[in-house]
Amino acid sequence: MRAHTKQTQEAMSPDSALLALKDGNKRFVTNTQVSRDLMQQVADTSTGQYPFATVLHCIDSRVSAELVFDQGIGDLFSIRIAGNFVNEDILGSMEFATKLAGTKVVVILGHTACGAVKGACDDAKLGNLTGMLEKIAPAVSQVKDPADAALRTSSNIDFVNRVAIKNVHMAIDNLRAMSPVLKEMEDTGHIKVVGAMYHIENGQVTFL
Question: Which tens digits make up the pLDDT trace of 18-31?
């Protein structure tokens, strides 16, 4: 499979871009990945890149967007930060990826058993990690059940995963509130903004 060109990128709609990610994850889960000559794709993209999707996801070593969506070199803009939250720098990267470089879909991808979410649930303190986890803390507060403080910790994986889902939704809300550029592109149908969860136990991505 060759890398995307300007023509193939422009031919994709937000819906077809999202479908390409969904189909890629199905191939990943069933171990039927497309055969790619990565060095050919290096050559194909040496004079330009035309990705069709932007994915914000966690630094977790088990969650690589290119792998779990079965994509190659030049297919995705991949943004990674522990806890997959948005800030001004990440939004600027997304604005470049969509408005200037032409991607058609933005995916906020959380995952089960997220270590950053666990740290936020436990109110962990450690150097610069403290401030980072504070950006995830609002999602912890928004998940009201269970009310028992003893059950609102990283030891309760169901609670952790519900916070991770809430964190994805809040990242999307913040994206729309903090980036007029992305909000306008979404409102006019130039891009889709979607949330998703990667399940570390089976490799499946579910879209929210």
Answer: 999 999 999 999 99
Residue 189 to residues 103, 104, 128, 152, 161, Cα–Cα distance (Å)? 12, 9, 38, 39, 31
Distance CA 181, CA 177 (A): 10
Q: Which residues contact 86 (CB under 8 A, 6 or more apart)?
A: 56, 94, 108, 171, 174, 175, 178
Q: What is the 3-state secondary structure (H, E, C) of 20-65?
A: HHHHHHHHHHCCCCCCCCHHHHHHHCCCCCCCCEEEEECCCCCCCH
- Distance of alpha carbon 207 from alpha carbon 194, whole angstroms: 7
Q: Describe the crossing of helices 88-95 and 180-187 by its angle, rounded to 10 degrees.
A: 40
0.90 surpassed by pTM = yes
How far apart are alpha carbons 113 and 22 in whole angstroms? 22
